[in-house]
Design goal:
4 strands
Amino acid sequence: MTPSPPPPSDESLRAAILALFASDARTASADLRAGVLNGIAHLIGKVDSLEVRDTAEKLAEKVCGVRGVVNRIEAPGAPSPARTVNLNLQNEGKTDE
């Protein structure tokens, strides 16, 4: 049995999230920031719609190695920024193919 590779660093996850934001037409011009701590992505910023807010969360969730996303992005009609962490443990141990 081969040992599993170490998880990606928080900084590499952050860079991957920001790259996705920059490459997606819906989020490229938005004022978004991301931080990652222990595989949990924390999204902050301000956008003009719930759609862009939700898109940013979905993009961050796609990054292999992200264990959960805390979406604190402000948008019209969005709930007050919560501290809820949505863990996606199904991604654990997966590698990009």
